[in-house]
Amino acid sequence: MDDVRKDLWRPLQGTSWRYLAVLMPLSLVTLWGLIAWGYQLDRGIGVAGIRRPVFWGFYLVDFVFWIGISHAGTLISAILRLTDAEWRKPVTRAAEAITVFALMIGGMFPIIHLGRAWIFYWLVPYPNSRLLWPNFRSPLMWDLTAISTYLIGSTIFLFLPLIPDVAQLARHATGWRRWLYRKLALGWTGSDREWHALERAMKLMAGIILAVAVSVHTVVAWDFSMAIAPMWHSTIFGPYFVAGAIFSGIAALILAMAVIRKTMRLEQYLTPHHFNNLAKLLLLMSLLWLYFTIAENLTVWYGNEPKEMMVFGARARGTFAPYFWTMVVCNFFVPFVLLGIRKLRSIKTAVIASVTVLIGMWLERYIIIVPTLSRPRLAASWGSYAPTWVEISITVATFATMVVLYLTFAKLFPIISIWEFKPHDRVPER
Amino acid sequence: MYLKGEFREKETATRAILDLKAKGFGPDALDVFSNEPIEFAGGVLDRPSRMSLVVVASALAFCLLTILFVRFTQYNYPLVTGGMPLFSLWSTGVVFYELTMLGAILSSFGWFLWESGLIRRKSPAPVPEVEPGMICLRVRCSEQQEDIASEQLIEAGATGITKL
């Protein structure tokens, strides 16, 4: 166990040039994104490409995408915890951290999209003299409560199993790290009462967080399907979005694991076995995604309702066709070939498939949002959308921010849960 | 006073706990310390918990409070709804659901802090240093019970006994 501890604590000590070489440029990209947002705050939302009739552009695409990615951790970790899957142990914390950071990033987009971000608190219920109480029936209010609940729950779900590890670290660390770990350890001593309470809380939280995670992406889907807009007003949008979220979440997890495996030299803990299991899950979700996509599009095509067919046509063979078919290739054909054929399945192919799935899932969000808005029911109101440098900069910066946050977290805390890694069954002779 | 017995294996620690309980030491007098969780068989050192009950009760309380809050808000600061009801359970159901879950989440965390003793640690009971891989059994006993407790710990296979 001591060797395990040493190995997993090693990445916390010192900072290699390789780590800095990744972190510094990405921090600059993050800074550029902040400058772009600052420019938008100064000049107004008009600097973004969103205009009549496409009022939701990149920002909402990013919002849905990142909320989807957030399902990587908590949902996957909760499912694996509840089913007591042994292989989950090195994977769970890496996954839970993705959730918290992706939610933080995703949750920013409605605020960025507001334009006047400084009055975002108008969404929060509070008494005021102008009687501007929020409309609780609005899906915007649903989003606020769902995402806030999920963020609080995910942070606690990440923090709880971290307590025993930071308590261990507090004993060995020095300086500010010791101070930080001691504060976060909350006075953990390792008594059986604490372990019992922790395990009970984790089991309960796993069940609760599953219910919340499913509801969050369902609510995000309802933002669209509650509108009587062509190709949005669909009853399968809830499960379709949840399946897509888990799909993109697994892809993000595989990618994050591959990066930390290489940069932090954790090859013997994140083994091909873990990647193989996650790759099989990714393949399964790819098939489920295909099923939902066919169900959704086939129903529209067979129904042949003129307004819906306008949007369907734009997606399948019109302006948006290149994006649509790239999405199909990225989300189905690539994972199916690379992960479905056993001989081809490896860490490298799992990473390639994950990258294509992430591209495909971002395109899917774009394909869902923009064509419907650009082709409303009244043909005279049709319009187009092209993102500006501000939207592109902010979008790119969020990816950089995600990596920066993740690498910073991995530098401060063990990315693999040490106490969970090896249950105390038998202790070797001293 | 407190005695600490060190064990290398779960089985010997289990034996010590059972022997001490047979000699009249209650579960409240016994605490096991380790760097990893140890699962004892049922009946060895059970720690009854009300966490599930508290979580369900808190969730219901949050649900009720949210319903009352939304109803109060909608009637006291009415919006123009075009003839639709001011308060509708269906269209505000998502808000109730999410805040019910928030109640469950916060109470899970709060009750964990309470039940684990992390936020109510007033007693100056000494905490033994645990070597990696070792299991420490801390026994609270009186001066008169010290010999009995030490004897039981040694018989069960404790590698070292210390007075804390």
What is shown here, in short?
The complex is a heterodimer of chains A (430) and B (164). Chain A has 430 residues and is mainly alpha-helical.
Please provide a written account of the structure.
- Chain A is globular, with a radius of gyration of 23 Å.
- Chain A has helices spanning 2-9, 17-43, 58-69, 73-82, 92-114, 139-159, 162-172, 175-185, 192-225, 237-263, 272-303, 306-316, 321-340, 347-374, 389-412, 418-421.
- With 430 residues, chain A is mainly alpha-helical.
- In chain A, α9 (192-225) packs across α10 (237-263).
- Chain A has one domain (22-119, 134-421): Formate dehydrogenase/DMSO reductase domain (Formate dehydrogenase/DMSO reductase fold, Up-down Bundle).
- The two termini of chain A are 12 Å apart.
- Chain A has 16 helices and no strands.
- Residues 423-430 of chain A have low confidence and may be disordered.
- With 164 residues, chain B is of the alpha+beta class.
- Chain B folds into two domains: 2-35 and 130-163, Alpha-Beta Plaits (2-Layer Sandwich); 51-115, no CATH class.
- Chain B has helices spanning 10-22, 51-76, 89-115, 146-156; strands at 2-7, 30-34, 135-140, 160-163.
- Chain B has a four-stranded antiparallel beta sheet, covered by helices on one side.
- The longest helix of chain B is centred in the middle third of the chain and has 27 residues, at 89-115.
- The mean pLDDT of chain B is 87.
- The chains are: A mainly alpha (430), B alpha+beta (164).
- Chains A and B meet through α6 and α9 of A and β2, α2 and α3 of B.
| Poorly predicted runs of 5 or more residues of chain A | 423-430
CATH superfamily of chain A, by name, is Formate dehydrogenase/DMSO reductase domain
Q: Using the coordinates above, name the CATH class of the largest domain in chain B.
A: Alpha Beta
Oligomer: heterodimer
List the helices and strands and how they pair.
The complex is a heterodimer of chains A (430) and B (164).
Chain A: H1 2-9, H2 17-43, H3 58-69, H4 73-82, H5 92-114, H6 139-159, H7 162-172, H8 175-185, H9 192-225, H10 237-263, H11 272-303, H12 306-316, H13 321-340, H14 347-374, H15 389-412, H16 418-421
Chain B: E1 2-7, H1 10-22, E2 30-34, H2 51-76, H3 89-115, E3 135-140, H4 146-156, E4 160-163
Helix pairs in contact in B: 1-4, 2-3
